[in-house]
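Instructor's aside before we start: the two examples that follow are unrelated to each other. I chose them only because their records fit on one page, so don't look for a connection. First example below.
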Amino acid sequence: QAAPIIVEMLRKQEGWDSGYYTGIATIHEDKVYMEKCVGSLQMLLEQEDISKFPGNIGIIHGRTPGTEGKEYAHPFVGKGGDLVYVANGYGGVFADPDYKKLRETYEALLAEGYACPTYMEGNFKMLPGGAKVHGSDLKCQEITYYVDKGMTAQEAMEKAFCERPGEIVGLLLNRKTPDRITFARINYPMFVGIAEHGIYLATTPQAFPEDAKDIGLLPQLSCGEVYRDRYTVKPFTQ
């Protein structure tokens, strides 16, 4: 069961750069179990016993402070509900101060029916009219669009990361392929650790279960898939 393990993994590294928004998702018998909140892991546990979520695969996330509602917590869900996405990082050296590429991407996806649940009106600069969306929510809808067009999850993540890059790393669950986690990494850290009972991913090695061995840093500018007993890695080619 993934949930109790990944809950403890987040607990070990909470405070590193998280504890203000928290969310989790697992997959079991063709269903996504997900919950998130504005607050710490403990607050989420008090809201719902997420440690009892079923499934042998899952992702969990904590993020830095903000002023928005729980929609701005990870994970994000793509249109249709099959894809669930978490990410770490920020625009960094790739950031466009005029948000031109973000606006273009948002408007193109919206025209195709891929709305962002984090859309928020106000006195912002990201989108036309002073609105904004969470960048990872937009990335999730981008990936979903490419998967709906026939790409594999790995192909879709690579294309979305290369077309609108950031200093980021992302993980993706797909309800239709519940035997794997798909990842893409530009340069934000993501480590892999291997144990007899499974393979784990985390942004710091301190999160891994104590019996996780063969810990390594996934390569920059790469994508791949992680299964229970193996993982694959390939460099970006786009």
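Example two begins here.
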Amino acid sequence: MRAYYSSQFVPQLPNGHRFPAQKYRRLYERVRASGLVAEGDMHDALPVSEADILRVHAPEYWEKVRLGTLSDREQRRIGFPWSPQILARTLRVSGGTLSTCRAALRDGVAVNLAGGTHHAHHDFGSGYCILNDSIIAARALQAEGAVRRVVILDCDVHQGDGSARLAQDDRSIFTFSIHGAKNFPFHKATSDIDIELPDGTEDAEYLAMVEEGVGRALAASGADLAIYIAGADPYVGDTLGKMAISMEGLARRDRLVLGLCREAALPVAVTMGGGYARDVDDIAAIHTETVRAAREIA
């Protein structure tokens, strides 16, 4: 199984920013140490191309991102300040998801040790997301003729509003999101299938709803490829999640989603999504179990 990462890790952010910048380095280190991915199958992601970006994002917005001319308000909406390092990281995250999708089409499953930047919209970034890696990858593969239809299985605790709006007039990209009803974003978009859950939802209800929703999405989408956003933020210890899902419950979720894709003979590209636990090692541990679940079906 191939895995993609960005050696351009997120720089330490100024005090007051809640994004756990070190989680990606910790995850990379755990996966390398675990042996879940063979050394020769770990690949440093290449930056996504401008042509791929402009299939999804407005030229004016991309120009601001590229040149670092986003306004203070636009940067606050994203959630952290622009920097050359953030730009380099952003391009490699989307490039990593595209490479992960290509690898999944070859091998059945592949993993990006980042990605799931589902709050990025056509002409603005939001919620720690600058470019929408899932939609960029889907449209690039469609342009190449590699796939006709893609299903996004979004199990981050926050609705994938950017993905839903970017795909709302495109029947070839099917969006499924299971998320907290009262969590960010507070003005929801409309996915093809949305399942909204109350604060405090626990393992049994959550897993039942995941199984029901993913089953419906796979049946309805007619997809050639799934992109699975395996957010760590439904975890009971997450500072932004408002859910009560155990680490074991999240591991069971990953095996459930990936198992359903395998039963459908559907290649699946896995991205990590969000995670905001106080202990960064908890986030890395949850994401590592996602990689383990992917390894099991490879």
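The chain is about 45% helix and 10% strand.
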